[in-house]
TrEMBL record:
Origin superkingdom: Bacteria
EC number(s) given by UniProt: 7.1.2.2
Annotated signal peptide: none
NCBIfam families reported for this sequence: FliI_clade3, fliI_yscN
Coiled coil: none
Keywords, ordered alphabetically: ATP synthesis, ATP-binding, Bacterial flagellum biogenesis, Bacterial flagellum protein export, Cytoplasm, Hydrogen ion transport, Ion transport, Nucleotide-binding, Protein transport, Translocase, Transport
The keyword rRNA-binding belongs to this UniProt entry's keyword annotation: no
Region (Disordered): 117-137, 455-476
Identification of the protein by name: Flagellum-specific ATP synthase
Length: 476
């Protein structure tokens, strides 16, 4: 297999080299002359700096007979007259099963210090089209993601695509690490797009851990890298997911975050002279989002599936800002992380009343739907009266529905609280939810499992003390 792959690469080499010259540099934008008739949008060139350093670039547009390029690296040493060599116009990778447990950059190069990556036999285009809609399978059965609140109230199916919407510092990264460690799916492909460089190693070692990394491929592009690298990291994440899907694996694709991908597209569009449309985002951003996100989902024929969970970093906690609004309309559901819930120390800080899974209730049994409906009703009733309850304006006994919501709120809050090192499976989640809302549960009429908020309330976020919840659900 390696020999075949090497032979294919050798056959792709050109008999001669074509090169042009740099005719202008403005900011991160490079103007190139001499190759304009051979280049198309997306073509790759290699710039040769004064110190012989090679800088890969991509064509993003044309102006007055010159090609416009953006670099994948630093432009230090690039000046007028520097040579530009024509490279591959269709970049591809050769992934294999040996990539599991590895960390790569946006170009598919290893950055974990574990040596070179074994190459697979088949090339995969980094930027490909989504599968045809008429050839796709339907979404599969319900999957276990290991998080009680999502398993029960926001059940996901194989091939579903969900968004996790939150402001900064509300717990997105911790939630992603829980999903990667505890999911029942075969493989994780994790894209860290525009991540803080300081936090990458901490997240890999402390949050994801050796167990989660062993069945994952992690693609990293930090915030200090050029916009092309951040955009490329998102494409690389999807290309690796497609490889494992086409080999019959059920893949969990985690991307953090789509917003930073959109920001990189905005930088690229503005550099090419594209006019801004909404909050500085160019029209090409909104055209590119469905091209990226639609690559996730069920495969064709008997192939596997890609279940996608994409985080969206909402600016200023505005869940109706342009990127959040566009992504919400593309995906099959959304999970809202609420800062007010995080501030009262309940993690994951999921606002269930504002979150929805579009494959639910179709994937649930009647009993599960009844259980979830009752839980939502109790949460909604308490939420509507929360202010009056907190200031003591509500008198017990005024409304039996509100009294019931108050009585169950402490158990529900405990049920929704889950430490990042605590795993919960599907069946146990339904049993605990049934006990929390006062409904019988179990096979063959067995009594429901007792759920004790004091003993079943597990670890909090690191550095915090356990919370005490009284009968009204207010932290004391």
């Amino acid at each position: 297999m390696p020999l075949k792959s090497l032979a294919r690469e050798i056959s792709d080499l050109s008999d001669y080299q074509v090169y042009g010259r740099v005719s202008g540099v403005l900011g991160m934008l490079v103007e190139l002359s001499g190759l304009d008739r051979l280049l198309v949008i997306g073509s790759r060139c290699i710039l040769i700096a004064k110190d012989e350093r090679r800088v890969p670039c991509e064509v993003i547009g044309f102006r007055q007979g010159h090609a416009l390029l953006l670099p994948f690296g630093s432009l230090d040493g690039i000046g007028l007259g520097c040579k530009a060599i024509l490279a591959s116009s269709e970049p591809s990778i050769h992934p294999s099963e040996a990539w599991l447990g590895r960390v790569v950059n946006a170009l598919g190069e290893p950055i974990d210090g574990k040596g070179p990556l074994p190459m697979g036999p088949d090339p995969y285009k980094v930027r490909s089209s989504p599968p045809p809609a008429h050839g796709r399978q339907r979404v599969g059965g319900k999957i276990d993601l290991g998080v009680r609140a999502i398993n029960t109230f926001l059940s996901c199916c194989q091939g579903q695509r969900m968004g996790i919407f939150a402001g900064s510092g509300v717990g997105k990264s911790v939630l992603l690490s829980m999903l990667a460690r505890y999911t029942s799916l075969d493989v994780n492909v994790i894209g860290l797009i525009g991540e803080r460089g300081r936090e990458v190693q901490e997240w890999l070692e402390d949050d994801l851990g050796p167990e989660g990394l062993a069945r994952s491929v992690v693609v990293v592009a930090t915030s200090d890298e050029p916009p092309l690298m951040r955009r490329q990291a998102a494409y690389m994440t999807m290309a690796l997911s497609e490889y494992f899907r086409d080999n019959g694996r059920d893949v969990l694709c985690l991307m953090d975050s789509v917003t930073r991908f959109a920001m990189s597209m905005r930088e690229i569009g503005l550099s090419a002279g594209e006019p801004p449309a909404s909050k500085g985002y160019t029209p090409s951003v909104f055209a590119e989002l469905p091209q990226l996100l639609e690559r996730a989902g069920p495969g064709v024929k008997s192939k596997g599936s890609i279940t996608g969970l994409f985080t969206v970093l909402v600016e200023g906690d505005d869940h109706n800002e342009p990127i959040a609004d566009a992504v919400r309309g593309i995906l099959d559901g959304h999970i809202i992380l609420d800062r007010a819930i995080a501030e009262r120390n309940r993690f994951p800080a999921i606002n269930l009343l504002r979150s929805v899974s579009r494959t639910m209730p179709g994937c649930n049994s009647d009993a599960e739907n009844e259980l979830v409906t009752r839980g939502r009703q109790l949460l909604s009733t308490y939420d509507n009266m929360a202010e009056l309850i907190r200031i003591g304006a509500y008198t017990e006994g005024s409304d039996p529905v509100i009294d019931e919501a108050i009585a169950h709120n402490g158990a529900l809050e405990a049920f929704l609280t889950q430490g990042k090192y605590e795993e919960s499976n599907l069946e146990a989640g339904y049993e605990q939810l049934a006990a929390a809302v006062g409904l019988p549960w179990g096979q063959g009429g067995d009594p429901a499992v007792e759920f004790n908020p004091e003993t079943d309330l597990s670890g909090q976020m690191p550095g915090t003390e356990p919370q005490n919840i009284d009968g009204t659900g207010i932290k004391t």
